[in-house]
Amino acid sequence: MDHPPPTPIPANAVFKAPGEATIGDKSTCLVSNEEFLVTDSSPKAEHEGKTYYFCCPGCDSKFKADPAKYLKKPEGT
After folding, report:
1. Residues 6+ apart with CB under 8 A from 38
2. Strand ranges for 1-77 from DSSP E
3. Cα–Cα distance between 33 and 51 in angstroms, integer?
4. 70 phi and psi, to 5 degrees?
5. Of the candidates 40, 3, 1, 36, which has an alpha carbon nearest to the alpha carbon of residue 18?
6. 69 phi and psi, to 5 degrees?
7. What is the percent of the chain with per-residue pLDDT over 90, rounded to a whole number?
């Protein structure tokens, strides 16, 4: 997957879980598992009342096609 260069993450950015993050937070992309800074231009998808942000446009498309695949919790958690 070819990702654009990431926006630098400020040292004071707060980490929030996917589905909890808002603009200015750092989070993890559910598709690529990359940590990124959520900006107003970050791709996003609404699912079951939550907004999920992604590191790049390809990732939001994959999530929208099969949200359950990316929201599965790893076994043992």
Report:
1. 21, 22, 23, 24, 25, 26, 27, 53
2. 26-28, 35-37, 44-47, 50-53
3. 17
4. -95, -15
5. 36
6. -60, -40
7. 74
Q: According to the model, what pLDDT value does residue 5 have?
A: 67
Q: Does residue 3 or residue 27 have the better pLDDT?
A: 27
Per-residue pLDDT tens over the stretch 19-64: 999 999 999 999 999 999 999 999 999 999 999 999 999 999 999 9
N residues, the chain: 77
Cβ density class 49-67: b for 16+ within 10 Å, e for less: eeebbbbbeebbebbeeee
The closest of 38, 11, 12 to 27, measured between CA atoms, is 38
Domain coordinates in residue numbering, the chain: 26-69
